[in-house]
Design goal:
With about 260 residues, the chain is α/β, with parallel strands linked by helices. It contains eight helices and ten strands.
C-alpha cells in the first residue's frame, strides 16, 4: 500500500535555485553528556537555498546537533562555514527559531518591545524604542507578513502568529544559516502549511541555508529538499521520497510497508 509519504516529490537532493557556493560543513562532529555519547561522527553539508530537515526518534541527538551549530554545546570534530567567495568563515550569522519561548502572557510586552530588547539591548527601556530599531522591526515583520502585529502584546498572539514573529526576529539581520527547532509545534494544520509556504519563499528570496528539526513528516515530504535521519550519527540522507522509503526510517516512525 502506498502512503502519502511515498508520493513525496523528488528534489534530487539539490535545491535548483541555490548558488552552490555557500556551505556549512560538519566533519566528524561528536558530543556527549556525562560521558555518554549523544552524537558520533556526524558529517553533513548544508547548502544555501536548500531546506535540510533533521528527523529522528527522541534521544537521537537532534537538539544537541542544533546546540553544536549554535556554539552552545562543546563538540569534537569541525564545523566550518564558507561564503560565496569560498572564503572560510568560522562565525557566520545564524538565525534561530526555538521550539517555544517562555514568557509571562500577562506582561505588557509588545512585539516591538521584543525586537527592541534583542536589537538594542544596551539602550535603557526608559528611553523608549529608537526610530532605527522601529524601522528594522517593521522591515523584519514585513518579511514574514506580520507587520500588522507590531503593537500586539505577545500574550495575545496565536501559535502561528508567534512563530511568524520569531521567524522575523531570526531574519533580522538576514542570516547565512537559519535553524528552526520544531517550529510548528502547537500550530494547526492550516497554520503549518502557511508557515512552510512562507519558509519556502524566504529561503529562495534570500538564498538561505535552512536547517529544520521536526517530526512533521507529512509536511517535510512536501517542502524539504533533503531529509537527514539521525540516530547519534547520520543513518541515511537524501531526497524526501528516498529517505522515507528507507526500511530503517519506516521502522523508526511506524510507517506502513510498501506493497
Amino acid at each position: 500500500m502506498e502512503t502519502a509519504f511515498d508520493s513525496a516529490p523528488a528534489h534530487h537532493g539539490i535545491a535548483p535555485h541555490r548558488c552552490g557556493e555557500c556551505c556549512t560543513t560538519l566533519r566528524g562532529v561528536g558530543a556527549s553528556y556525562g560521558g555518554e555519547p549523544v552524537l558520533e561522527d556526524v558529517n553533513l553539508h548544508l547548502h544555501c537555498g536548500e531546506l535540510t530537515a533533521i528527523i529522528g526518534e527522541n534521544g537521537a541527538g537532534k537538539t544537541t546537533l542544533v546546540r553544536c551549530l549554535l556554539g552552545e554545546t562543546p563538540h569534537s570534530g569541525e564545523i566550518h562555514f564558507s561564503d560565496a567567495a569560498r572564503r572560510r568563515k568560522d562565525s557566520p550569522i545564524i538565525g534561530y527559531v526555538p521550539q517555544r519561548v517562555s514568557f509571562d502572557r500577562e506582561a505588557p510586552v509588545s512585539v516591538l518591545d521584543l525586537f527592541a530588547a534583542s536589537l538594542e539591548a544596551r539602550r535603557p527601556a526608559c528611553l523608549g524604542v529608537s526610530l532605527s530599531v522601529r524601522g528594522r522591526t517593521i522591515e523584519g515583520l514585513r518579511r514574514t507578513d506580520a507587520s500588522h502585529l507590531l503593537k500586539r502584546r505577545l500574550g495575545t498572539l496565536s501559535g502561528g502568529e508567534m512563530q511568524r514573529v520569531l521567524l522575523a526576529l531570526a531574519l533580522t539581520p538576514v542570516p547565512n544559516i537559519l535553524i528552526l527547532d520544531e517550529p510548528v509545534s502547537g500550530v494547526d494544520h492550516s497554520g503549518r502549511k502557511k508557515f512552510y509556504d512562507l519558509l519556502s519563499r524566504l529561503r529562495r528570496q534570500y538564498d538561505l541555508a535552512v536547517l529544520l528539526v521536526s517530526h512533521d513528516l507529512a509536511s517535510l515530504a512536501r517542502f524539504a529538499d533533503r531529509l537527514v535521519f539521525l540516530n547519534r550519527r547520520v543513518v541515511c540522507e537524501g531526497p524526501p521520497a528516498e529517505v522515507l522509503r528507507d526500511s530503517r526510517v519506516r521502522e523508526a516512525f511506524g510507517l506502513e510497508s510498501i506493497t
